[in-house]
């Protein structure tokens, strides 16, 4: 009886039900129920996320999901952000665009992170997808404003163009003029990364003026302060705005015109930009402060007391990015005025200086942990820390989900007790049971990894530098952290034993990065041979590893699971197992 | 002026360069060095007012490896002597000449011929830039290899630490926060990534100019980075590092490719590297390009004009 019902249940109904299921995890679970659900689900999946572009290849994706409208791809490992991945390593998007141009003519959204995008790729996107709507290039590189011009000219339905933190060859500001006069559908534009001094102001103003749905506009440094007011007046509906260079000689007429423009933006909730900000013009934004939920002052050179005054005027703030000019005193003020704060990032104003230039210590973070009950995400650069402070923070804020602490000098001890910071970080993982992301710093022994392996059961991403004593440290993490997806390690004395003993674990993770550690080439070869579904990449610019003894440690190691086999686009300084010993799926 | 068999800037044939290297009297070496270091930019066929017997013009990068390096390496001292520093002024003759730099005869010849960087010299009179071969110092591998033998101003900088994204680092570096403190001390720190492209190479590299203290260090690093393009794939010839290159391979490369190091400055003009004091160079350099010598022909005159305009 039940069997009959299953066969007679129409696919369309199931599809309709599945359409309410958006998360990838749930979709994947649905597809595993039975063969017919797998089939139905694959035809109606519209959105794909590929966390590692080399874990799979475009053909496999296209074969399984024929009707995709939105794709997100990530390329280089995270440590590429800090220049640890040599240029030319990979992460090229072109092969994907080529295949998708054929298979997904109705593709609407492409989101890329840490990938190499060429003008050719952008031109192909512009030409191939008639209903293209969203292009997000997060920390990408390899393209110029010529490619952007192609997108602007051809994508009549473009809603979102977000180039955040990408490296763009900014050849000229005129690419903006390539948006036709008939084009009015822009909703979000982020060009904050464009470096040149040129921008076509008139094209920008006209574009802004004719797009009534524009919600997000993040300008680049080329836009001077005195141009902002005109832009804002054309787009009073903006929700998110990023200024350009926020400095000028104080002139009352300019100031009041600007202040007026800001105050007319009743929907404004998020501000950023503020390059080279001068205190004199900060009050121009006061009228919007009470409504602000997000404020990015991490490029603003203003200091206390102006900085304290500003944040104290923003009681609705949920997200604050700021330089360490805020100091402990500013963070205390923040803790008492911003009770809704969820995310705090404090960046160093002088990271390479030998002496501290500001009075920002662990006390600031402790104050925030006392005062901000909703705090869940922290990125904090400082120069001193104590176990006591970390324990306090952990006990105050068990709801932390992301905790990244960077004590600027590697292997810094607890400044009060001169001990390692094992106990402090141990408290963090013990109390913060939902912790998903953790970055360690300071002097740390294998003990901290024991704590992490024991307590950090929800931890998905761990970043480690200059820490640990032996392979035991790595073993604790690999054997204990059940939810671990990404592990990145640099300059730690971890070697072959822990890696080989936990080889199977690596297939349950997205990737492992180890650089300047003690993993031998022999171990890498062995791992590559034994684990066909792992790509073991040895990245070494010193020449072929065979020219050194097998016991010699490799420079950099990147291991990731893959169903696509070894990749075909490796540069000369990357070695991996021979193609014969791998499964090559077409 | 003799026309070379091989088409290179100096106007010397490879055989001549190799034979110069084998001479062993100090005097002769020094004499050669003097002439060598007074070499000016060679456009094939151009005249150099101060040339004596050879019209040596520039000995270009030569893919960073050359048997001739030993000829000139003696003349080049370590550290900042061969580099324009702010204090040494722009007009003095033979700024990079061995007269001011000392005459360590032997040090250049020791060690392995693991390749070359090149250094730009300036002749006071003609203010034409010159490229000279020099011996690359060995750079240690392993952790922190990005810094190698470099000693930066503030403290030893480890590659990628503290973990600050390039976007942020470059932004803060090019516009350092104004401070009551000594702003210059801060300018010396930070980092400044510029792209380096090489004609014929499949992809760009990036270098942080702030970690080098001199042109010499920059050349060493560039040669290390780009050597695998010029030698071919590091693995495919079965050669592990440049130390293992045979002489015949070096000669093959000399015949083939000739490169000069150029940079794009803030005005968007392409200049030969080495015209200006190192500090000014790092402040104005936006990107680097290792270009074929044949394409660099137009550069010299503009470089001269710029120098004149600046001074």
Automatic annotation (TrEMBL), chain A:
SMART domains for this protein: FBOX, LRR_CC
F-box domain ranges (all copies): 9-50
GO BP annotation list: auxin-activated signaling pathway; pollen maturation; SCF-dependent proteasomal ubiquitin-dependent protein catabolic process
Main subcellular location: nucleus
Pathway: Protein modification; protein ubiquitination
Entry annotated with the keyword Membrane: no
Spans through the membrane: none
GO cellular component, one term: nucleus
InterPro entries in UniProt: COI1_F-box (IPR041567), F-box-like_dom_sf (IPR036047), F-box_dom (IPR001810), Leu-rich_rpt_Cys-con_subtyp (IPR006553), LRR_dom_sf (IPR032675), Transp_inhibit (IPR041101)
Subcellular location per the Swiss-Prot or TrEMBL entry: Nucleus
Name this protein carries in UniProt: Protein TRANSPORT INHIBITOR RESPONSE 1-like
Organism per entry: Durio zibethinus
TrEMBL record, chain B:
Location of the protein in the cell: Nucleus
Cellular compartments per GO CC: nucleus
Transmembrane segments: none
GO annotation terms (biological process): auxin-activated signaling pathway; regulation of DNA-templated transcription
Span of domain PB1: 191-293
Main location: nucleus
Record keywords, A-Z: Auxin signaling pathway, Nucleus, Repressor, Transcription, Transcription regulation
The keyword Coiled coil appears for this protein: no
Xref: Pfam families: AUX_IAA (PF02309)
InterPro entries membership: AUX/IAA_dom, AUX_IAA, PB1-like
Keyword Membrane in record: no
Family: Belongs to the Aux/IAA family.
Function according to Swiss-Prot or TrEMBL: Aux/IAA proteins are short-lived transcriptional factors that function as repressors of early auxin response genes at low auxin concentrations.
Subunit-level organization: Homodimers and heterodimers.
The protein, known as: Auxin-responsive protein
Species assigned in the record: Durio zibethinus
